Automatic annotation (TrEMBL):
Residue ranges constituting the Rabaptin GTPase-Rab5 binding domain according to the UniProt record: 19-119
Alphabetized Gene3D superfamilies for the sequence: Single helix bin
PANTHER family named in the record: RAB GTPASE-BINDING EFFECTOR PROTEIN (PTHR31179), RAB GTPASE-BINDING EFFECTOR PROTEIN 1 (PTHR31179:SF5)
Name of the protein in question: Rabaptin GTPase-Rab5 binding domain-containing protein
Organism of this sequence: Scyliorhinus torazame
InterPro entries the record matches: Rabaptin (IPR003914), Rabaptin_Rab5-bd_dom (IPR015390)
Coiled-coil blocks: 21-76
A molecular function GO annotation: GTPase activator activity
Keyword annotations from UniProtKB, A to Z: Coiled coil
Organism lineage string: Eukaryota, Metazoa, Chordata, Craniata, Vertebrata
Superkingdom of origin organism: Eukaryota
One example of a Gene Ontology biological process annotation: endocytosis
Amino acid sequence: MLSNLKGVFGALDGEEGGASYATLKTELERVKTDKDQLEARVQEKTQHLENLEEVSNSLQEQLKKEGDAKTNLEELLYEEKNKGQRLQTELDVSEQVQRDFVKLSQTLQVQLERIRQAESLENVRVILNDTKLTDINQLPET
């Protein structure tokens, strides 16, 4: 472009000054038009870039919020799993206590019936001495 302008200025020094001036003016208008178009494109691209940056920032914020929500849900899930395990353990213990209580109750009812049917105090002592109530696992199945 600079060489074109030099050529145009060089032509002004010659005989055809009027024609060269018109050529220079046309070239200048073309350069201005190109410059205006380039500036408009730069402005358009700058605006597009700003829009993309806004979208990127918005998406980053949303990603952070979603990440925080995921972390909270994972913590809640962990707590609920622990709670479920704890409740299952409590249920297992409760069921075992209930089974032990039934076993003890049945054993005591059998022993009580044997005591009622005993014919002497000596037989009652034997029944009581045979009953081991210190460990539920030592009780006979009824």
